[in-house]
Amino acid sequence: MCGSVLRKRSRYHKHQKLSILCLISLTLFSKVNLEEIKDYYKLLGIPRDATGKEIRKAFKSLALKLHPDKNKESADAEEKFVKVAHAYEILKDPISRKQYDLDGEDWKEKRQNYHSYSYYRDHFGIYDDDPLILTLSKDDYDVNVLDPNQAWFVNFYSPHCHHCHDLAPVWRKLAEELEGIIRVAAVNCEEDYVLCYQLSIEAYPSLLFYEKETHYFDPERYRGSKTLEALKQYALSKVSVDIKSITSENWQEMKMQQLLLLICEKESSDCLETEEIKKIAATLEGLLPVGVITDIEFGKNILNTNETHPIVFWQLEDKKIPKTHIIRGADRKEILDTILNILPHPPTLNEKQFHDLRTKLRLGFDKPWLICFYLGTATDLKLELKRLPTIIPNINIGLIHCGKSSSLCSALHIVRYPTWGVIKSGGAFELHQGRDALHEVAAFARDSAKSTNLHALSPADFHNIKRDSSPWFIDWFAPWCPPCKKLTPELRKASQHFTSDVVQFGTIDCTLHRQLCSEERISSYPSMVLYNGSVIHKFHGTPTESAIVAFIQDAMNPVVLELDDSNFSRLTRKSAKELWIVDFFAPWCRACQLMETEYKNFAKSMKQFSEVIIAKVDCEANGDICSGQHITAYPTIRLYPLGSKGLSTVAIYNGHRTTLALKQWVLSMLPSRVEVLDEQGFRDQILSKKYYLPWLVDFYAPWCGHCVHFEPDFRLVARRLDRKVRSAKIDCEANRVFCGHQRVSAYPTVRLYLSPDNYVNLESKNPTDISNKVKEILQDSKQNEIHDEL
């Protein structure tokens, strides 16, 4: 183990950019003109949706080529290298990258640090160039290792640790051995100090193993030998696969499915090793089950072969007619490659076929299609493409070669390969923005196919939308942005709540359409906006399915009245029979944004009170109104009470900006149908006489949080049941002994008294449930009285 220890530092974000060990560095002071920089992405030679790994790889290649130590004869070598190093510093961090994407970056005289040539050659990103080892960062770590379909073995290292360099060739070989079984990854703790600190990485290299469905902070820390054999045996011991034992008793059932069969006598040296069989079964999981036949004669008979220890692919064709293929190969990869070549391959489509099947889907014919857009050969996609039909049987799968159909790929804005896209019923098209992992592609296909109301939009589409009057909810995003990736599944689910004639959903990729995003003043990712004709509503809530649905429903059928110059006179002419509460706000005000959802929920909760009108005024759009009302701070909440006309009387709210607090405040301004009783009043009104109406009673304590939350709801129940029951409440803190005699042991307790000695406890605290239950009890009581009279 290296003795490198990560120390707790209050300003670790600053130290993250500096080496924690001694290194050779050169400090430069340079002044560079913005025009000379042009585009950071072009400077590094990467696409605008490049991943973190692609950014690091591109920078390393340029660093080795342009480093001043290798270009001492060039007078401007340092200046060129500083530009590249600065571009890397900006783009590697999601926060500064977002700022650059949206606003550009203003170059000023600044200090720029960089390392020696040997650092970039020997220490920078040990595994960045490895195709089988995924370098994880703080932005994508949890998305990957919390994958319930994949186990992960992660190496946390420092590029300055010689033990980490010693482990590197072993780690690469391990990734080859475990390919398709366990995902092998690495984290550079110099680049991602925060992540390593969070996971308590204290020495290098540290190896963590995440089994499927392991929690973020619950990996198993590997403490054994770091030889290839020890690491491999440990990882494979964590793999659980079901290898079928095929006998004459279960063959009739097993032969009705496709199988990979191995005829192998126990303890025979000619058979595949147990470890290899386990690897094959793990790689084929979800595609083909693997079975072993130990009865050689039985195996020869059913497979019609004279070979002693064959490996056979038992294939079922369309009519469940079996066909046997003898599989020859010296190792696992050869065997797997042979099987994959036998399995049917998805069709390759041309541009005309693509448009034809999209037309069919627009007309309601055919199943949705998952299309893989690729260049070169699809060899690397074999396993994924062959597995997909068994995972998503209700979705067609096809290939499009972007070299042969370049105009189509260009029109669909395909900029990286492979890219997956779904054509949905109705003709909508959507591109996958996540990883190429099999389960993610399959999940994308399933979710996208259901979300027929979600479209990927181009600038031309957007301009048509603005000219049209139909409502659209649009997500402006960047595919590399972590919050955008988390939002996409929520957006798909939200789109399923609406039909296209109510509101349609779209996404616009700001890495592809920068000019449009700039014109629309998109200032953050993701930005969600509802365009409803000339009215624009910006979403500021929590980016979840329920919040998006509620936001759209509120915008389409607002529960809060929006006041402006055209209708503010409604408030100025307010009658004495109305109570108005008005929120004066500014859309840029953070406190206003935080209160927005609470205010809408408050408005919904008051819908039963027809005399209450809840409104809001946008003071940025209606400055004259707000200045005329002397509004000097946001949000300002004013109440115009019952009994007053127009603006003659006003109360200003200074309490908590929550649904409950607002509701309590407004209800306190309304006449209540709930009578307040003490012990004597309770005895006089309820326990000592036969009354003409039943009593509904709330037993409460002022210190009880549930009672405080329930009080507005009880007032609402009293209002709904007026003239059916009389409603009362009693403070059981002030009348503790009496409540005890009434056998009240929990607060709040709601009780319906039909007579002094006949009552029913109501368990639910939902206003609608209470109202319905009381009506049901009263009806039953009435029927019983009629029956008794008869």
Automatic annotation (TrEMBL):
Listed PANTHER family: DNAJ HOMOLOG SUBFAMILY C MEMBER 10 (PTHR44340:SF1)
Location in the cell: Endoplasmic reticulum membrane
List the SUPFAM superfamilies.
Answer: Chaperone J-domain, Thioredoxin-like
Q: What is this protein called?
A: DnaJ homolog subfamily C member 10
Domain Thioredoxin: where?
87-241, 443-557, 664-779
Keywords recorded for this protein, A-Z: Autophagy
Q: Which organism is it from?
A: Rhynchophorus ferrugineus
Question: PROSITE patterns in the record, alphabetically?
Answer: DNAJ_1 (PS00636), DNAJ_2 (PS50076), THIOREDOXIN_1 (PS00194), THIOREDOXIN_2 (PS51352)
Q: Name one GO molecular function term.
A: oxidoreductase activity, acting on a sulfur group of donors, disulfide as acceptor
Q: What does this protein do?
A: Plays an important role in regulating the size of autophagosomes during the formation process.
Pfam families assigned: DnaJ (PF00226), Thioredoxin (PF00085)
At the top level, the lineage of the source is Eukaryota
InterPro entries, A to Z: DnaJ_domain (IPR001623), DnaJ_domain_CS (IPR018253), ER_disulfide_reductase (IPR052460), J_dom_sf (IPR036869), Thioredoxin-like_sf (IPR036249), Thioredoxin_CS (IPR017937), Thioredoxin_domain (IPR013766)
Q: Which positions fall inside the J domain? A: 39-104
SMART domains per UniProt: DnaJ
